[in-house]
Amino acid sequence: MQKKYGLHWFRRDLRVAGNLALKYNWEKSQGRVVGIFCFDSQFLSRPDMSYNRFQLFLNTLKQLKEELINIGSDLLVLDVGPQEAFSNLFSQLKANQITLPHLVSWGRDYEPFAKQRDSKLQIYFKKNNVNFYNHRDHLLIESQELTKKDSNSEGYQVYSPFARRWLELFQHPEINKRIKQQKKGLQYLENISNGNFQKIFSLQWKEILEDKLNLPDQLNKYLLENTKKVTVPIPDCGSAVAYKNMKNFVDNIDYYKDNRDFPSINGTSKLSMFLKNGSITVPQIIAYYTLKPYIKKNSSRDTFFTE
Q1: First vs last Cα of the chain: how many Å apart?
Q2: What pLDDT is recorded for position 220?
Q3: Degrees, nearest 5: CA angle 303-23-137
């Protein structure tokens, strides 16, 4: 395959709507973008990664893959870390005279090990003459923007001054602009939650791999092995489900203070698991609360995941 295409590296951003790095790649690649997910050994070896929690994560990946296929893209899930995954992929593409992606994109991660990992991969992409791009992901205000007023780098250790500073920045025109940019993403979520998908992408992995590469998708293998070890019912997941939960909570938020302490009542948002896996973000929740009147149930599907 010789046509220009992009590759989006999914990490903590397991969603399409509001995915700014994915949107950038989509624009630069004329919609010819596919996704890749790499299971990092550090991620899988975490002591808090139980079989039940891992199943929710796997189900989220499955929902993301299905969503991408429905809108014309695809997701390749590999069972090796990103350094090995990209090295293997690029080597096989070169060996079969298949064009490398012109652009790799991803959402920013702020943990020390992630920063180190990303720096190494940026060097690797440069060596292979592949452009790369990263963007703010699940945060409305990034860590480097939320420093003490008398410092360019020192963060807060006490919650109250941190909260005051966050609320101060929240009033800034740029932050308000970020919230309003979620309007199209919310309309997109409204559409897919009603089963209305639009082919906004135009490339899948089978077109790139051309049956020449030895890169089998590992998602079904993980699902098959882990499902046997699950001990509790796993909730439905994915961006469409997260969106429905958010709508239900916002519509009933006035009753939160009365219902939150009663387990028998569906009085809380239950959004934490979706926020953890990146199915939905804080900016999207804030945007829905403020832009709700503009989200149309039967809107035209001529929308995309963010403005």
Answers
A1: 30
A2: 94
A3: 115
